[in-house]
Description:
Distance between the termini: 57 Å
Shape: elongated
Radius of gyration: 36 Å
Strand order of the largest sheet: 1-2
Number of strands: 6
Number of domains: 4
Number of helices: 27
Amino acid sequence: xxxxxxxHYLREHREAGSNKPVPVEVTRIRDTVVAGLGDLLQxxxxxxxxxxxxxxxxxxxxxxxxxYFEAMREIRIKRKGVERxxxxxxxxxxxxxxxxxxxxxxxxxxxANAENLALVGNDDLExxxxxxxxxxxxxxxxxxxxxxLQTRFSQVYEGASDETPVNPMAPEHLCSAFIExxxxxxxxxxxxxxxxxxxxxxxxxxxxMLLDEANRILIQAGVIPNFRYHGxxxxxxxxASGQKSGEGSAGPSESRQDGNPVSNSGSNAVFEQxxxxxxxxxxxxxxPSPQNDPGIRVIGGNELVSLLASLPxxxxxxxxxxxxxxxxxxxxxxxxxxxxxxAQANTSDGKKPALKEIDEDLINLVSMLFEFIxxxxxxxxxxxxxxxxxxxxILKVVIKDKSFFSKTTHPARKLLNALARAGIGWSNSDEKTxxxxxxxxxxxxxxxxxxxxxxxxxxxxxxxEFEEFIARENRKASLVEQRTRESERGRIxxxxxxxxxxxxxxxxxxxxxxxxxxxNILINGWSRxxxxxxLRDDVxxxxxxxxxxxxxxxxxxxxxxxxxxxxxxxxVVPGLLKSLRTGLEEVSYNATKLxxxxxxxxxxxxxxxxxxxxMEVAEEPQAQESEQDDVWNKAALQQPExxxxxxxxxxIDGIEIGNWVEFRLVNGASFRCKLSALIExxxxxx
Length: 686
């Protein structure tokens, strides 16, 4: 394999690093990821085997059939070695993680060199295009988890920072590791592309669960546990890159002022790379360029923007009273729609109008972008519909400013990301008109459809307004969440206090038949004193004292024959009566008759002191037996129930603070809630 192809071997990067101690949490992630990728890769190889077998059965000649069977045999023989090589490479990433973006920067530098491009073979190019498409799709699909993981890994690894982030699980690293691992396979390009396709389908497309597990492990280890994706890391990284390039030369700023086409080469690097690859692919496929056809007139970007305004869904009749979220999400066939209006366009010279190749690529990329957004199941249908209305305006923006794909700070891109992020926590409701977030998103889409005339400043203004709105709503939501947490904690603490008080008093009074006045005082009066003492125990520390009053009262009503016990009785009773009166007065128990109640209690205590026995031990053996039977019966009934919900409980245990949860009701309705607090002492989620 020619190394000029832009497919980079990772061996040189791994050997350049030094073996450093790996943190414990990273070791856990490494073991989980390596094992998980191994399982996924086995599925990919099984699918490759099935695909090659089917192709061999449908082969049109013996030579073609033998080719596929030889490829099957080659892959089967070397499969274990490829899997082992891939897993070892991935494991090495966790020991010496390459900086994220390292390989992309190398690729950009090499592909910018025309001499190197001339050495790229057709097979290498096809493989490079497939690899880049796989990486681009994965980074777009898992953008949030990848950024969270990159930020956390950069916090864990020494030497990493926001300017030089690391992420051993970045798609470019994993894909490059697989490309390196399959170098040992002596198969032709078609079979290699089948291998890459199945790797994409079975491994890359299922990275989400491994990324989520890695984030969960780092959160449990306390690594930035409350981080949520807002796109800031990407912005900071871009800004840092721009600063470095600016320090090297003052030329770019001057070139932009002069309108030089090369002036935006730095900010458009991503799109230019994709365009070059697609152009080479068209050339290899023999697709003629429209610019070389004398019967075709290639239209410019400004003319294309004007033609887009004539599309029937470019404005969606965005009147102030129009409900733009009605219907289903629209995935517009932008290419087909543009070709249709080109076919209807009249030209003075009689030539057939056609698009520039670069504009065709832009249309395809915008279509892919919205496919990713509209495939996100986290977005509710009304928000998806609203965002889908922006396809034509975004296409107009991209035609005028191709840095949309390279600059995370691009106003239109920031606004699109912000709308999608905000829509994740929004629940579909029958009262959408009363929902501030929905109204704001609806209003932004409406303004873009009505007011956008090509000036990107509108997106910047709307994004600033939306960020201010979101910040304001987040502050309100934080206050509501805080009050809800405090209220729920208070409710649960009160519930726990009441249950504890009831249990303690019932246990005490169940042992003896108490006089009626004493029983009423404990059940209806002193239980309230104990309840307040439990709630205030953090400050006043009176809980144990309140429990001791119950025990002392019951003890004093118990018959005592020994002189030492009777002496103790004489010492305890005065303080006991004082504590009882003070506590009952605090809770206003029977305020009008408290003196009579206390007099009756004194009388009962005096009778107990004089009598040989003022109370009888309650007969409880049978009660204990029946109670024990009830416990066993409940336990027997509980076992099947516990087994039935064990799987659900495991899922619930995996929910973390800040996660959104969707509840689906039996009537088909659904709503979403965010976990804002986990009260462990009550096993309660708020």
